[in-house]
Amino acid sequence: MSLGYDHLLSTCQSWFNNISDHRKSNKKISLADMLNSALAMFTFKYPSMLALDSGRMKSEDANLKSLFGIKNIPSDTALRETLDEVSPDVLHGLFGELFNKVQGEDRLKSYAVFDNHLICAMDGVQFFSSKSVKCQYCQQKTLKNDDVVYSHGMLGAVVVHPDHPEVLPLGAEPIQHQDGNTKNDHELNSAKRLWNRLWDEHPTQKFLHLGDALFANGPMIRHIEERRHSYLLNVKPDSHQTLFAHFEHPQNQHAYEHKKFTVKGEKIEAWFINNLPLNNSAGDVRVNFLIVNISDSKGKKTTFTWVTNIPISTSNVVKLSQYARARWKIENETFNTLKNQGYNFEHNYGHGYKHLANTLAILMLLAFLIDQIQQMSNKVFIQLIKVKKTRTRLWEDMRSAFKIKNFNSFKHLLEYLIANTIPKTKQKNTVKHIKSVT
Ligand SMILES: [Zn+2]
C-alpha cells in the first residue's frame, strides 16, 4: 500500500463515488465530479473557484481528468449550487479512512506515547466573518450598535507530537449556532460530537486528549473516562478555583511533590499532586493536578497548569508537560498553515445558503491532511519542499506545470517538478529518491 498523492486521491474518489446524490434532476455532472473538482482546487491551492473555472488551459482540463478522475468538469456556479446541498457529515469518515492508511503503513509508531496513546489536540478556529453574507448555519453575534456579525468556525482534532512537525487532522466539526446560546455551549457540544465520532471510528485506538480549560469540567472528563481515554487539559485560576485554592493553602503545600529539571536549555520547575476533586460541583471527578514553571534560555518564565487522569510521577512529569505544550501545534502547524501558507483558509470560496461554507472548509482540511501525509512519507515531496523553500512556492510551481504539460499521475508531476528544479549535477541523488518513492 502506498501513501502517495495518487493512492490517497483515488481513496477520496472511491469515497465520493459512494455518496448518494441528493439531486432529482440535472445530474449530467456527477456529484463525485463536483467533490473531486473542489478537492483539486484545494490540492492546487487555487485562490478561487473562478481561477479554476475560467480561461482553463487544455492541459489543466486533461490533468483534472487524469489526476483526479474527473469525467466532466463543472462550472463554478454548478459546483457551488450542488455542494451547498451536501452536508459535511458525509465527508467525516474520509479522515478516518486516510488516517487508517497511515497507521497501516506503520508511520505512527514514533507518535505513540504512554502505552500506545496518540496525542489528540482539540481547538476551535474561526474561518469566516461578515456583516452581510450569511447562511442557515452561520453563528450570529449582535454588536452594541445592533449590527449582526455572521461567522463560521470549526473545532479541529489533530494528532500531534512534540518531536514531529507533521500533524494529522482526525476530523473537524463545524461549530453551529444551533448548539446553544453561548460560545462555550457551541464548542462543548461540537466537542462531544467530534470525540464520539473519533472514538467510534477508531475503536481500538487510545487517545490522550489535549484541550483548553473549557473542556476541563465534570461532564466532559466523565465522558472521556467512560470511553477509557486519557486527558491532559488546561485549567485556569478563575475557572478552577478549588484546585488553585488547594495549592495556595499553606497547610497543603507539603502534599505536593516539587521537582526541578533542566531539559534542552529550559529550566522546568514542577509541583504535582494526584487524586484531587476537580471542583465542588463535580467532587466525584478526581484529577491529578500539575503546575509547571518553565524558564527558557533567556530567562523568560511561563507558568502552565493542567489536570490529567494519568498518575503523575517524577519519571513522567517532564514528558507530560512536553505533551501538553504540543497543543500549540493545532494552532501554529494546522490553522496558521491553512491561513498563511497558500491554503486561503479565510478566503470566501462561496458561502451558499446551507452547507457550502462548512463543506468547503472540510474539503480544504482533507487536502491539508493529504499534504501532511506527503510531508511525512513522500521523499520527492519532502525534497521539493526543501528546494522550493516555502510551500507557497511549491503550490505556485505545481499550478504552473499543471497549465503547460499533461501528466498521467501525481507522481509524474512531482518527478517533473524536481527534474526541473534541481541542478543537473545533483540529479543523480534525486533519481534515487524518486525510485524509492512508494
Ligand atoms: Zn454561513
Q: What does this entry look like structurally?
A:
Strands 1, 2, 3, 4, 5, 6, 7, 8, 9, 10 and 11 form an eleven-stranded mixed sheet that branches. With 438 residues, the protein is of the alpha+beta class. Among the domains are: 173 residues, no CATH class; 83 residues, no CATH class. 39% of the residues are buried. It is globular, with a radius of gyration of 24 Å. The chain binds zinc ion. The site of zinc ion (ZN) has 8 residues, from strand 4.
List the topology elements.
Layout lengths: L4 H13 L13 H13 L5 H5 L4 H11 L7 H8 L8 H13 L7 E2 L3 E14 L8 E4 L5 E14 L2 E12 L7 H19 L4 E6 L6 H9 L3 E5 L6 H8 L8 E7 L2 E12 L8 E10 L5 E8 L8 H9 L2 H13 L15 H22 L1 H10 L2 H14 L5 H10 L7 H10 L2
Bound molecules: zinc ion.
Looking at this protein, list some descriptive labels:
single chain, 438 residues, alpha+beta, eleven-stranded mixed β-sheet, 43% helix, 21% strand, binds zinc ion
